[in-house]
Amino acid sequence: MKIMDEVTFNEQNVFGKGIANTMFAQYFVGESFLNPLTMPGKSPLFLANVTFEPGCRNNWHIHRANTGGGQILICTAGEGWYQEEGKDVVSLVPGTVITIPANVKHWHGAKADSWFSHISLEVPGESTSNEWLEPVGDAYAALR
Fold first, then answer.
1. In Å, how far are 13, 71, 117, 129 from 103, measured between CA atoms?
2. The domain 6-142: what is its CATH number?
């Protein structure tokens, strides 16, 4: 369900909006928020609820790994988009689960007319890292 009103969205965003995602802001168009659900070093998996304001999206990026690795997105509130390079865009709604293999170029974010949240799970692997690439252009994202 598309949600433009922030108060209504916050009521449905059961894992909480968190704080401004300033550490990674340079890799986003628009404002995003991060609410860690597990703490690094205290859990073998890092999970965070990532919230995107309407129209916010991250840059193209790749979760690198020699073995294992990748990312899983569990959509929890609002509506968004996901796309792998060379493939059609996928509409994201609460309950959608996206499994992103390691070494696949992709982006994700909110639709222009909705707040959006997903839980991000970094899949463990060998020699994992994130490679941030170019922004998804406004004209390109608007076509989606």
1. 30, 10, 23, 10
2. 2.60.120.10
Q: What is the dihedral of CA 54, 51, 135, 84, to 10 degrees?
A: -100
Question: What 3-state DSSP class applies to 142?
Answer: helix
For residues 138, 121, 98, 10, the Cα torsion angle rounded to the nearest 10 degrees is -60
| Residue 30 backbone class (left: φ over 0; alpha: ψ -120 to 50; beta: rest) | left
Question: What residue segments make up the domains of the chain, in order of their start?
Answer: 6-142
Low-confidence ranges of the chain (pLDDT < 50): 143-144
139 membership: H or E segment, kind and range = helix 138-142
Residue appearing with tokens 């070093």: 41
What letter does residue 49 receive in the DSSP assignment? E
8, 45, 70, 122 from 38: Cα distances, Å: 26, 7, 18, 11
